[in-house]
Amino acid sequence: MSSFFKTPIEFLKGVGPQKAALLNKELNIFTYADLLQHYPYRYEDRTKFYSIRELHEQMPNVQIKGQIRGRELIGEGRKQRLVIHFYDETGSVDLIWFQGIKWISPKLKTGVTYVVFGQPNKFGNKFSIAHPEIEVLTPALQNNHFLQPVYSTTETLRRKFLDSKALYNLQKVLLKEAYNRIPETLPQSILQQYAFMPKKDAVAQIHIPREEQMLQKARFRMKFEEFFFMQLRLLMQKKIRLEKFKGQLLAKTDLLTRFYQSHLPFDLTGAQKKVIREIFNDFKSGKQMNRLLQGDVGSGKTIVAFIASLIAIDSGAQVALMAPTQILANQHYEGLKEFADKIGVKIALLTGSSKTKARRKIHEELLSGELHILVGTHALLEDVVQFKNLGLAIVDEQHRYGVAQRARLWKKNETFIPHVLIMTATPIPRTLSMSVYGDLDISTIDELPKGRKEIKTLHQYDANRLRLNGFIRKEIEKGRQVYVVYPLIEESEKLDLKDLMDGYESVQRAFPEYPISIVHGKMKADAKDFEMARFVKGETKIMVATTVIEVGVNVPNASVMVIENAERFGLAQLHQLRGRVGRGAEQSYCILVTTHKLSKEAKVRVNTMVRTTDGFEIAQVDMQLRGAGDMMGTQQSGQVDLILGDLREDEPVLTIARQAAQKIVKEDPELVSEENRLIKIQIENQAKKSVNWSRIS
């Protein structure tokens, strides 16, 4: 059965070697299975013929029938257009062609009844349809009212007569042969529970829908199946991990109690306490922890990670904290060293710029167990870095690392796989966390520390520069500091550097009385650190920078973040940048500066930032704008391998599918029952193509 679906596409009637080569290259269609899974992305309603009198401007594509009563060629050369006067018994409409006039004109004859399909536009009192589909009315067309599937294609394919309609015709040819060969993949119990149609009918209805209701039923069934198998795989991986990988018991709390009672300078929020309890329960369960800790910028994830580290250290284990950049690693180290020194915990920093002598000392103290916490960048992954007993691995902003990179950290303990705590300040929409991190336990810090004032976000146009400069001057006079950030788009670094230097000069001209720092990615690390240090100490009042400061710098005295060309930033970036202010007790501001010309998407991004500071809401809007794959970046997007399902729109389907998968894993985790035989076959087929993500978080 499966060998039929592996048949090369060139053997399908109407394809042949030349068209097959084009389908391979343009659409990645190599086999019958590939073509069958090239689903329509929308449908045109051919279920009704409209009269010309019924047309109005808000209509999408419509179908009308009538006859040609005249034609005109208007204009000359490139501006020439063909206008056909088309009538039915209720009125007239103009059909217009700007291209392909010589090809279409001889085919259009008076006295013949045609079916026309296209989008009506009104100009004055007259309706017109540009470049409509037009064909002679036949008895088959008269009676064949249906939803016409529209397939994605390319300009190259269209030129070779492989447009959407041609792809539809190929699907009809293939379905005749394939229909009775399409295997069922869901068990009878699930089909009955959700009243699903058989899989072969669902596939057929998606390509050749009889009516809207049947199409929706077919799509629901197929989306459910995609989500169901994704969730089942993740839940089974989690179950195997919990059974197979024993966790080091970390249950001592003397050090934590001492720190909590004598050295914690503020009260923890309810959300922080809840997360610490969840981590502690994992530590003493005997199972290896694999937990994702998500919380907005400034919600206090780092102190939670430090408290978890104290439990590990008290129980005789060591801790590694890996950050994506040197700036962020430095900041974690500086912030935690202050606490560690007070309670006799030894902490060190290892980055690419650590000197040989310091490295040697770190390696020795790690092996002897004298060093308790090692903070660093990916330098921690080097083979030479060996621990006596690594018990907890903390990874900050883990989407910046490749899977293979992280896996090297887990291998640094031969007796136990270390407990894993992944931290992210980019809140993850629920559908995405269920699909990408469905095998991890998720903890959320969903409240900000007491006394934090919400950052006020304002949108300003370039034209209001003088007013903006006046506002910045007032804030500096109050003793505050200011960030001015310019975008960095890697493809045009020269242009960006020029923008940054121009910006730096205009800031100098506007504020000649204040010392100014500048930081960008082309600077050497020590020059960057020097400029950062000046700003942190308050020696400079304004920091002009590219997005290198997106993660990391913590300057409580900085109360204003000005983001230039804000329309060129993504939502997640804007939210991260805004989180650089609001660290102190004073009212902070984020000012988004844009040109007047904003795309529809840019308007949504700016308005969202002005409206809310809730990272989860922002992440949801971000996913609606960009899609799940883009949000995750190339490292993770391969895990969300969906054809019909859409994480932006299909949360209800995903939730039902996850519940169904949870029930199966609970009742028949090995899939040994005859009832679940089809599921087992499908899971085994999918396993041949996929990576086990749960082993490597």
From TrEMBL:
Cited SMART domains: DEXDc (SM00487), HELICc (SM00490)
Residue stretches making up the Helicase ATP-binding domain: 282-445
Record has Chloroplast as a keyword: no
Reactions listed under catalytic activity: ATP + H2O = ADP + phosphate + H(+); Couples ATP hydrolysis with the unwinding of duplex DNA by translocating in the 3'-5' direction
SUPFAM superfamilies according to UniProt: Nucleic acid-binding proteins, P-loop containing nucleoside triphosphate hydrolases
Pfam families per UniProt: DEAD, Helicase_C, RecG_dom3_C, RecG_wedge
EC number: 5.6.2.4
Entry's Gene Ontology molecular function annotations: helicase activity
Keyword tRNA processing: no
InterPro entries for the chain: ATP-dep_DNA_helicase_RecG, DEAD/DEAH_box_helicase_dom, Helicase_ATP-bd, Helicase_C-like, NA-bd_OB-fold, P-loop_NTPase, RecG/Mfd, RecG_dom3_C
Coiled coil: none
Top-tier EC class: isomerase
Entry's family note: Belongs to the helicase family. RecG subfamily.
Protein name in UniProt: ATP-dependent DNA helicase RecG
Gene assigned in the entry: recG
